[in-house]
Amino acid sequence: MAITDRFRIFYTLSGKDALPSERQTDADNSGTPDYIEQLAQRFVKVDKFYRTKVGLISPLDSDRYKGRAHYIDINLLNLSDDKGKTRNGIAYDGTPKLDRVVAGAESLNVLLIDLSNSLSWENKTVEHELFHLFQNGYTYFKNPWYTEGTARWSELIMNGRLGSGGGLPHSEDQKQELFHKTYDANTFWNELILRSDKAALGKNFIKKLLEKLGEIDGVAARDRGIESAPWPESEQRSEDNDPYIWRAVLETMREIGYTESNDKDVSKLHKL
């Protein structure tokens, strides 16, 4: 186990979840593999970027998790299934208290990411999964067209890049098609950013969007009589969330100063 800043990274050198042998090298004899030290610094760097450059609130300091989660724990695991397919990572929205005695660490309520122990360094899963925790700190909405579509933005932004955009929906049918997308919804979000916040590479847009979603999920909870917190998983992913997320999109555009008067395509969005 390695602790850096507010991150704890748990790994093993043996067994089915063992780090690949080439990642077990400890050139500086610190007692921690060089790969783990580098990975910890990457998480710290990405976290700092989201907080200082994008202006987001750390999930550990959010209204949802403050005082309820004490670290962000990263489990490095073999995430291959029986068919040999490997998942890159999984971010959770709960605050589990895992038994960390064997690892010589304190058992505390934490936020959690499972990460494949065999990811290439060029892979952007660190950026992607950590961004999911930031999303979870702001809102209970977890509809994939929003969560995965905007998380794709996070994969490029630290390199000063934006993904390509695509056509905006012009009909109710096209809007419903968008609501059923996952990762491929990124072109919708990229298009909005390219039109309204290109100079800032979407930082203003994403910050305002998350803030707005945090406001509007409270409206959704009242409208639908959701009394428990956290929301049941079925409610977090419900299609009933789509109109509220859509409302957040339109209000975000207005509040960053890009109104329907600026753009006929955006004007059509307000009429869907």
Summary of the model, kept short:
Helix content is 42%, strand content 8%.
Could you describe the 3D structure shown?
- The chain has nine helices and five strands, in the order E-E-H-E-E-E-H-H-H-H-H-H-H-H.
- By secondary structure, the chain is an alpha/beta fold.
- It has a five-stranded mixed sheet with strand order 1-2-3-5-4, covered by helices on one side.
- The mean pLDDT is 95.
SSE map:
Layout: E1 2-4, E2 7-10, H1 34-53, E3 72-77, E4 89-91, E5 111-116, H2 125-138, H3 144-157, H4 172-179, H5 186-196, H6 203-224, H7 233-236, H8 242-255, H9 264-269
Parallel strand pairs: 2-3, 3-5
Antiparallel strand pairs: 1-2, 4-5
What is the global morphology? globular
Cα(first) to Cα(last) distance is: 51 Å
Instruction: Label the structural class.
Output: alpha/beta
Count of extended strands: 5
Task: Please state the CA-atom Rg, rounded to the nearest Å.
Answer: 20 Å
Main pleated sheet:
5 strands, mixed
Helix content: 40-55%
Q: Taking strands numbered 1, 2, ... along the chain, how are they ordered across the largest sheet?
A: 1-2-3-5-4
Notable traits:
272 residues; 42% helix; 8% strand
